[in-house]
What does this fold into?
Amino acid sequence: MSKKKNHLKPCPFCGKKAHIVQNSLHSSYYIGCKTFIGELGSPCPGSIAHQSSRFCYVTEQLAIEVWNRRPQESNDTGKS
It folds into this structure.
């Protein structure tokens, strides 16, 4: 697999580095950051703590593709 295919975009919530984790017990993959926010150390919505229970994928490549998917950024102002 090429390096470009394995590149993970940063967390869309906090901008920190994302990490891929393999759950060998369930043969699945998930991705998230390791960020905790606030005085009480609440996990970021994009953290591994949140992602592991909600977004598990059968292959590493699928997990990467879904994690890296972002809404299309557009310079279009909507004016014709």
